[in-house]
Amino acid sequence: MPCSKYHPLLIGLLFPSLTMAADETSSVSQMQQFDLTQHWAGYLALIVFALAYILAMTEEVTELKKSKPMVFAASLIWIFIAVFYTKAGMNEQAGIAFRATLESYGELFLFIMVSMTYLNAMEDRGVFDSLRVWLLSKNFSYRQLFWITGFQAFFISSGCNNLTTALLMGSVILAMGKGCSRFVTLSCINVVVASNAGGSFSPFGDITTLLVWQKGVVPFGDFFTLLIPAIVNFTIPAGIMHFFIPQERPAAVMEAQEMQRGGWMIIFLFILTIITSACFENFLSLPPAAGMMMGLTYLKFFSYYLQKTRDAHSILIPVDLAADAKIDHFAPMKYMNNPKAEGAQQLAQEQPFDIFQKVANLEWDTLLFFYGVMVGVGGLSFIGYMEVASHHLYSGVDPTIANILVGVASAFVDNGTIMLSVLTMAPDISEGQWLLVTLTAGVGGSMLAVGSAAGVGLMGQAKGIYTFTSHLKWTPVIVLGYLGSIATHFLINGRFF
Q: What span is annotated as the signal peptide, if there is one (predicted)?
């Protein structure tokens, strides 16, 4: 049975631990398993998962948080599996498979938790407000800002995972788009498409490209032939949405807004954390989540420093303000007439930086939604549905059609799970077809808001503005970009077929 059955939804991990995944897969694959795709447990699992997915997609209508139905469905699916295996006298098998699925989620959870914590810390220090002020001071129009954030997301995601890229750019968009919800909505859609497209041409930009490169079916340098198709995938929908962006310019901000104390250091520590995560994977063969957790300690120690030096930093008021600082009477009038003293007062009243508060403020609904999807898909894979789907794709179907359908399926099921299925089947296809399936699996998730980690993350970040329905309205435009990238690949990379 394909190893993909035991690797559910490795969404958005930067440089995933393939060696460990392979070992884990081989150990699980030695278990005796049953094909439950024609069994009542399999049918019920499919129905429950589909209903939960529908409820998650209609969150803004039902006002039921998307994590609730998905976590409940995932629990039911594994109950069905465990009941069958217990009756068969193999109750330990279901537990082993579930723990393998849970381990995958645990790595993803820790990775996302650290990324979100750093973003919350940067927001607290005014990093995104400062960037917003800088961009607005350039008097860019909403349309120009739309393209600037899109191209930034495209190129950043070629070296960083799509989730972190989308959350980073989403914070900037929300800060700039206050008072213009249409700009925020379309820019979020644009960032999702750009983030997924940007990772599809780099061997280490996305899990799909990394898996294909690791397998050896495509040489390292040939991945970059997908750059132009990826650009087409991003620019076609962006070019159409451009005309629906307001032509106005946001209110110009001429005064520079300085970041709070420690802002630049937190940016540096976040970059260092990403580098640490990559080094853990490439040089130590440790999961990237382990590197991210080490990076979290950088922020923890720095927050300790900020807390311990806060009082001393607040007391060090310039000499010319010392006399004012001692005056208690008529203080409001004094501060009102003395801008420097007012700034000193604000500095003295600075709230302590609490790292655990940043963790508490994470988007837990999104994190639990990931749990439901990953564990649910893991159960369906263990039942055997991923194997059935993979075999039907390449049995008697033209490889081009099959690879296009893989991209469509990645809008519903994680591209990493699907790509593992395809690689395990090892269909006899040309390098051009391998490049095609790498492209389609990488960008196919853009067609739905829940099709990629970038979309799910932004839905949690821009609640009520960027939603499943708002993304769905632009799905036809995104499909045009999807088809355009495929046509471009055949046009410029025909030598590989």
A: 1-21
Does 40 map to a domain? no
Residues 6+ apart with CB under 8 A from 89: none
Number of domains, the chain: 1
User: How distant is the alpha carbon of residue 228 from its chain centre?
Assistant: 23
pTM of the model: 0.64
Give the Cα separation of 2 and 29 in Å (integer): 8
Question: 441 and 226 in contact (C-beta within 8 Å)?
Answer: no
pLDDT score recorded for residue 110: 83
Has residue 224 been placed in a domain? no
- Any residues with CB less than 8 A from the CB of 189 and at least 6 apart, and which? 237, 241, 466, 470, 471, 474, 478
Q: How confident is the model at residue 476 (pLDDT cuts 50, 70, 90)?
A: very high
Location of structure tokens 């990931």: 370
Q: Residue 202: in which H helix or E strand, if any?
A: none
Which residues, in sequence order, are CB contacts of 348 under 8 Å at separation 6+? Answer: 314, 315, 317
Per residue, the 3-state secondary structure of 357-417, as one string, reads HHHHCCCHHHHHHHHHHHHHHHHHHHHCHHHHHHHHHCCCCCHHHHHHHHHHHCCCCCHHH
Per-residue model confidence as pLDDT tens digits over 250-273? 776 656 567 788 888 988 998 898
CB 454 within 8 A of CB 195: yes
Domain that holds residue 324: 317-349
